[in-house]
Each structure stands twice: as structure tokens, then as C-alpha cells.
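Hey,
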Amino acid sequence: MNLSKLFAILLVLLAFMVGWGIGNQNTTALERADLPLDVAYTGGFLTHTEPLSNGQSASNNPGSTLRAAITARLGIGDTYQVNPGESIQSAVIQAQSGDTIRVMPGTYSETVYIDKDDIHLFGVIIEGRRATLDGLGKLNDAILYSGNNIVIENFKIVRYKGNGIMSQAGNNFEIRNNIIVDTGLYGIFPQLSKNGLIEHNVISGIADAAIYVGMSDNIHVAYNEVFDNVAGIEIENSRHAIVEHNHTHHNTGGILAFVTPGLPIKDARDIIIRNNFILDNNTPNFALPGSTVSGIPAGTGILIMAADEVIVEGNIISNHKTAGILITDHGNASGLTLDPQSDPNADHVMILDNLMFNNGLDTIDAIKAYALTELHRGNVDIFQIGPTEGSCILNRQRYASVGVGDFTDCAFDNTNAIANYLLPMGAEHRLISDRERGELTYLSICAGCHSYTGHLIGPPVQVIQALYRDNPEALADYIDAPVKRRSDFPKMPPQNYLDRKTQLAVAQYMLDVKG
């Protein structure tokens, strides 16, 4: 062997050794970054100090293994049985607090309205046959409740135009084991509620959100399957919520946590999204034009908009055209009117370890353009736009990310210390004034068809005010038994399931409201 060949071999060996050393150093750095910290999150409801009117302290809940929102009934009541051909609402009218209503398998085409406390509405399942509420494509709502300590389970609900199951400020509720298909805007919709459990439901074909938690606190959403909807699970203007162990697939957007400007509750915060399967949410957006969710780009796994203290942990997020996780402020969201009382930014977002792959496969032009400013091409697991403070990410090298340069490294890697945010003693029962009853009824039942000035399914509130002026009794009569009067609007379905007090309350509210 000549000297030149020997010298060449030595150079190759030297280059290999140097490369191996550098590579080994980089590998060691990556391994150190990937080492589990085993440090639990110590924030959340435990550290918030808002007073609880029933005397409970925030510190007595996190870490609890409690999995019930209703820990005790108000009393031992009677049991009513409803058979096919009979009315569920008639049983509700007869029932008193503490009673149980068992609904036998069969089809019931009605709206059920529960305005009493501690009623358990229980569908009986026999050989797979369920009690089925069928709106026939004509009725607006299946089950509405304003009572506290309400349980609704084991129903099949189909073909309603507005909502499957909706609350009007009822605290302490459990909604479980229901199958809900094609019920209009929402499948399950608790509003202005505290302390609730939504679990083991299967919901599909919803034009807004399958599960929509609105302006509510201390809510647990677990073990649900939601698919073929615009939004799978939506936490809007709500606090202290955990969304875990759900399967959300083939929606437009999988799981959403955001603030809608202009609502009475101005923030969304302290939300944990963990251990969910979030897959293939690429369904074209079929929401009503102008609604908040109509702006969700198809192919969004998780959307965080202006919500604070959101933790994303342990999820499998894959096969989304736009992005696995999309984080934005109000300023970069389309079609929103800003609210000066709402913080428009998503702050203190915390992204821990998640399994993410095949996201951002065919993302929207706006994300492509922004990604180019960071010389990023290809898939997008995480996209963040807009100002953010206090946000962090764990093991950032695992993800194809854009816009997270200001995120620090998270100092913790799990939320194991927080089992749920349910209140061990329950929330104090909410008492609703006539004014609140009218407003809540309008927001939950009427607002989908009657805006203040706009042309929706029915005439605007301003037109109704001009027609009825100082005559709420006449408007309440029409609410009870509508008659088609105008060719440019469809006939309104009767709202005769509402008691007279509620009909008068909503009529008075609609005549009094300004803008």
C-alpha cells in the first residue's frame, strides 16, 4: 500500500471519528430533551381563587377520583314509566324533585322541557332497542332543562332542527350514553352551567358542534365519539374544563377551545385537552354562514382561539389537511367583531408530549405564506399566529412547527395531579329570575331563528317588537300556537312544551331587548 492511499484512509477515519463525535453530542442533546421530567402541573383550578358560594374551596378538588357531578339526590322520590304512545312531557309535569322517569323503548316525537330540580330522565334499553326521540325534521329541540341535578341517559335522539340536549343554566348535570344524530346546530349544549359530566355519548351530523360547552365552569367531557360534524367538541367562554379520552374524527375541526367576543362571559381558561384520539378531521365546513365555527378551516385537529391556560397532552393527532394544532388570536380570525372587554390573545398555552403525524398535508394559503417567512416547507403539526405570553412547549424538536419561536420549554410534563375539576359537594343550585328565564329561553330556543336585526329563519326581533309592542300576552299566545302569516318565512313550530310563565317571560324579554 502506497503512502497516498494510507493517507486517504486515515483522512476518512478521522472524518468519521469527528462526525461520530458531533453526531453523538447531538444525539445526547436530543436524548436529554426527551428524558421524562416526571413533574406534574401545579396550576389549574387548584390555584384559582374565585369564591365558591357553597363554601367549597378550590383546593379540595384537584386529584380527586370523583367521577360524578351529582353525588346525592335531594330525596327518595317516585318512579314514572312512559310507554310508547304516551307523553314524556306529561310525566315531567307530574313529577316532583327526586323522581325518576323511565322511558320504554319506542318512538316519541315531542320536546321535553324540565324546569324542576333533581329529575332523572332514564331511557330503558331492551335488546338494543332504545327510547327514541324523533323530531321528524320539524321540531326544534329534543330535551331542554333549566333544573339543577338533572341526569339524562340512554336515549337515541334524531332529526331535530335546533338541539339534541340543551341546558338553560342548570347546575350539577350528567348526560351520558346517548346516541344523537342530525339534531341541527348542537348535539349536547350546556349553557351557563356549573359542575357537569358529559360522557359515553355518540354524536354525528351536527351543523355546529356535537358537544358545545358554552359559558360554563367545572365541566368534564370524556369517552365520547363525535364524527361527521362541523366541530367535534367545543369549549367556548368556559373555565375549568377537562376534555379527555374522546374519539373525534371526520369533523371539520376536532376539538376547539376559544373565546367568542360579545358574550356575557368574557374569557375561556384553564382547559385540559388530554389523551384523545383526534383523527382525520377534514370534513368540508357546512356550518351556517356567519356563525363562529363557519370560519374553521377543514382539516383542523385542535383549534385554540384567544383561550388562556390551555394544556394539550397525550393526544394522538393525525391526518389533518390544515394543521394538527392551530393557535390564533382574534385579530387573525376571520369574521369576528372584537370585544374590548375580552383579551384577544391566546396566552399560557402549554403543549406537552403528543403523538402527531401527517398533519398540514395540504394546508391553507395563509399558513403556507406564514411558514415561508420561517423558511418552513412541508407538513405542519403546530401553527401559531398572533401575540402570546407565557406559552411553552415540551420536546419541540418532535413536531413540524411554525410560529412557536417565543414558546419557552415547559417545566412540567404531565397533569397527573388533576383527575377532574368536578366539585365534590356539587355547585349551589341556581335560581333563575323571570328576566333571566326570558333571556335564557330566547338565547337557547329563539335566537337561532330570530336575531335582533338580521334575516334568519324567522323575522327579526325588531319586526316582532313592532307587531306586538306592549302586548306580551299576545306574543306568548303566538309562541304557544303559531299560525303562518308571511310567505317569506316558514311556519314556526309550536313551543307549547314551555309553561305559560316561561312563554310570558321570553315574550316580555323579546319586546324589551335593545340591540
